[in-house]
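With this grant's support, the team has encoded backbone shapes as discrete tokens. A representative record is reproduced below.
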Amino acid sequence: MYSAIFGLVAPDGEEIGPLVETAILSQYLHEPTKFARIHYARWKQGEVDLVFLNQSLKVQGCAEVKWRDQHFGNLDILKNIFHFCRQTGLSEATITTKSKRGVKKSGDLTLHFVEAAVACFSIGAQILRCRTGSQDVVVGRSLFSVDSRTTHA
């Protein structure tokens, strides 16, 4: 829709970051009960894009949506995720990338990296499976995970 209104977007243009965040967040709109428990965190020195709360409104997980790969090789860029996870007691977080996938540990924190396009697809596929009754939708890292049912749909 952005391109229809404003014109083409270059693959690495400054507009792409917010568009990727919107694409991932919009997948959750298909499951309104879960969408109501997705928030963001912002404080004076930083922010985290997605914060997942459980039914008791306690932090269950978090994700940082990126459209670049540089943080995969330089975890120092992710200081906001580290800060948020320390403050909330989380032991893992998910970060989307442009083209990198993997798991990295830093101290007590496990970081799950997944391509933004795969995360978008995975969220939609899991919500679809929920709608057909073959799986319950959960929020957090598991929605970004890649399994054989998601990648070979």
The chain is about 40% helix and 25% strand. The longest helix spans residues 116-131. The CA atoms of residues 75 and 126 lie 29 Å apart. Helices lie at 2-6, 16-27, 32-35, 70-73, 79-88, 116-131, 141-144, 148-151.
